[in-house]
Each structure stands twice: as C-alpha cells, then as structure tokens.
Amino acid sequence: MSDISTTEPRLAHFPVSFFASVMGVSGCATALHAAGLPGLSVIALALTIALFLALAAAYALKALRHPKAVAAEWQHPVKLAFFPAITISLLLIAVALTPVMPGLARIIWMVGAVGQGGLTLAVLSNWIGHRAFQQIHISPAWFIPAVGNVVAPIAGVTLGFPETSWLFFSAGLIFWVVLLVLVMNRLIFHDPLPGPMVPTLAILIAPPAVAFLAWLQLNGGVLDSFARVLYSAALVFLGLAMTQAGKLRRLRFGLSHWAMSFPVAALTLATLRFAALTDSIAHVWAGTAALILLCGIVTFLIFATLRAMLRGEICRPEHPFPKRPIHGVN
C-alpha cells in the first residue's frame, strides 16, 4: 500500500494551526517595542507581516484547491479552535503597528475585530450545536476562539473603539472563566494530554496576562486591585505550566510548540508594564529576563520550523483524533 503522503498534495495538509506562529512573532515585536528596542521591533514586525501574508496566501490556496480538507479541519474537535488564530493575528499586528502606523493599524484592527467576532460566534455555535464533544477533545487550545477576544482592547481603545473594546473584553473574560473550569476538569480528572498537545499547556498563561494589558487600556492605565489579580493569576499559571516543562524535552518538535510563544510574549509585556507602573526593579529584571527568553524561544521555533519544513515533516497526514481516551498516553 502506498504512503498517503506520496499520493496527496502537501498543500492539502497545510494546518490552520500554523497561524499560531504569527501570534508568537507579533507578540515578540510588541515586547521589543515595550522594552525600548524600536529597531529590533520593526524588524520583528516586518517578519510578522510577511509571515502572515505568506500563511494567508497558502491557506487561501488550500481553501480553493482542497475545500474538503478545510472543512475537515473545521469539523475537527481540536483544530477548530485554531481558526480564530487568523483574526487574532490581525489584531496583534494592529497592536504592533499602532505606535508607528496608526492609520493602517486602525484598518487592520477593524478587519480583525469583525472577523474575530464572527469566528467566535461560529466556533461557539459549533460547540453547542448538534455535535457532542467528549472530555478528551478539550485542551487549553480551546481558550483561543473565545478568550482571544481580550486581545481587541489592547489596540482598540487607542485606535478609537472604546465601547467595542469593552464588548470584546467582556466576552473574553466570561468565557475564560467558563472554559477554565472545563479545561482544569479535563486536566485533573481525565487522561493526560496526548504528547503533541502538551505545549498547549502554556496557553493557560495567556488569558490573564492579556486581560491585564487590556484592562489597563480600558481603565486609563490605573493599576487597581483587579489588574493585580489578573497579573498574579498569570504568574500562578506560569508556575503550573513550568511543572510540566520536563515533558517538553521528550517531545519531537511540531507546530504545537508554537503555542508556547505567545503566552510568554503576553507575560513579558505584562511584566514590563507592571514594572513601569510600580517602579519595581525586580519586575524590570524579570521583564528583561522574560524578553530574552521570549527572543530565544521565537528564534528556536523559527529555525526548528524551517528545518522541519526542509525535512518534509510538516504538512503531512496526521492520525485521526481518538474518539475515546487512550489510557497512558502523555
């Protein structure tokens, strides 16, 4: 029997999860700007835009030539959650562009916001629709569609959309609480995450870290009690994610490793902002260390992805997602 990878075009297996890389690189660009490194930030921003355009073109071509493959991803219980990564990428590009090209950032933000709202409703409709999901289908990646809405206020307030930003923030915060309960229930009371999904544990850090940044934008930059709760929650989830770091060393590289980049970027930005608001030297050093770590992670992921592409290890058929839990898989 011939290998399916030799009989099917690689484009048909181009994954929508690839857009998580745009989120990571854009977060790095914004963090570099926040750290007072505008030159490096512009370079990272240019890379972000080029990466997004390349991925968008590739996925659009996939949609034209292999619509059934796109439909299969939409029906997949895990891959479905990555579709809003496309519009979140646009919102993050708008964040990075706001200090240098606010006019263009405003246009990109509006496109991203409309798309994010539509995809959020579409994914939620799919979740509560005719199809029954099982506990094994839940992973931290489920935060992306709904909780990703808290990204919108970071640039939205500055660009002149305060009320819309409140709407997105409210939606993201509500679904963070709901999904956090579901995800923690799955992690505690059910089988461990399959190996390829372990890097997504880092996503737990992102919602409170991004919500902290968004809340500061919405309340005029005041570091109040709620802002402190959000930032502290991000640190709690950082600690939780670090307890599972040992498993990463045993994993073969895959695109799911990009799930680590944006949460680290969000926490870096939150720490730098917290340091600026409190004049805390400890947080300045922590933010600097986090920025160095972030740049190292993104650089490693870029080279690891290019190497995997050259080896033909990306855009290949995957095993179907199990319908029932597989005991002992981690």
Supply the key terms.
330 residues, mainly alpha, Glycosyltransferase, 14 helices, 0% strand, globular, disordered C terminus, SLAC1/Mae1/Ssu1/TehA, Tellurite_res_ion_channel, monoatomic cation efflux transmembrane transporter activity
Give a description of the structure.
- This protein is mainly α and 330 residues long.
- It has one domain: Glycosyltransferase, CATH 1.50.10.150.
- It has 14 helices and no strands.
- The longest helix is centred in the last third of the chain and has 30 residues.
- The two termini are 30 Å apart.
Short summary of the structure?
The chain has a single domain, classed as Glycosyltransferase, CATH 1.50.10.150.
Query: What structural class should be given to the helix and strand makeup?
Result: mainly alpha
Radius of gyration: 19 Å
The CATH superfamily title: Voltage-dependent anion channel
Mean pLDDT over all positions: 90
Give the low-confidence spans.
Answer: 1-7, 321-330
CATH hierarchy, class: Mainly Alpha
The structural domain count equals 1
Question: What is the N-to-C order of secondary-structure elements (H for helix, E for strand)?
Answer: HHHHHHHHHHHHHH
Count the DSSP helices: 14
Q: If classified by CATH, what would the architecture be?
A: Alpha/alpha barrel
Helix content: 55-70%
Cα end-to-end separation: 30 Å
* Main beta sheet: none
| Residues in β-strands, percent | under 5%
- Overall geometry: globular
CATH topology (fold) name: Glycosyltransferase
Total number of strands? 0
